[in-house]
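Researcher:
Attend to token order:
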Amino acid sequence: MENRSAFQKRATARREPERAESGSNAVQPAMPPNARILAVDDSPDALTILRLFLSAEGFEVITAGGVTEALLRVQEQLPDLIITDYAMPGGTGLDLCRHLRSHPKTHDIPIVLHTGADLPHTETAPYDALYAKPASLAQLVRRVRSLLAASRGVHPSQH
């Protein structure tokens, strides 16, 4: 399937290992205007932190407390990127990733799995980046910006 192959190529390019930025001259990738991020976590505190931090960075943030709610949010407001926890009510973050990857409308949305679980990151993983909790919010934002910039030509904003 040609679309899947193209996705795999993009996903492989986006799955480059994280490297610390050196110096203050690190270039921030351009962010699509009004980029919408869906943050999914069963911890209200974690959602509040993500929402406040990402909003302060200029992102529009919508939240969901679990997989079922996340799927509803995606139907209501198609996000440009999703950050999801792993262990949640109604299924895991991997379940959410697999569901999104299996539908044409959501297939190319970049997904960051942000978790305290010890998960391997493989080439066939249904997410684009894996971050262990606790993670540096600044590092997470750099990766979010990078994934959004990489997806600009692939997943144009639908809003």
User: Anything to note?
Assistant: Strands lie at 36-40, 60-64, 81-84, 87-88, 91-92, 111-115, 129-132.
